[in-house]
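[step 3/7] inverse_fold.run input=structure_tokens len=57
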């Protein structure tokens, strides 16, 4: 299982957007360890928009 752990994202959506293609190909789970809950919601929504295989826990 491949996991990405993110923290201190500070609403830097452009950096999170760069992860989206990598997430589809290589990652089974994303753990957002903080700074801003809205960032985790944003990343989840972006992934779900592009890849129907993304699922929320």
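[step 3/7] decode complete -> sequence:
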């Amino acid at each position: 299982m491949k996991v990405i752990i993110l923290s201190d994202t500070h609403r830097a959506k452009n950096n999170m957007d760069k992860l989206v293609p990598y997430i589809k190909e290589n990652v089974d789970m994303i753990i957002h360890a903080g700074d801003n809950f809205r960032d985790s919601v944003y990343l989840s929504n972006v992934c779900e928009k592009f890849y129907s295989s993304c699922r929320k826990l």
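[step 4/7] annotate
Residues 19 and 43 are 9 Å apart (CA to CA).
The first helix runs from residue 13 to 26.
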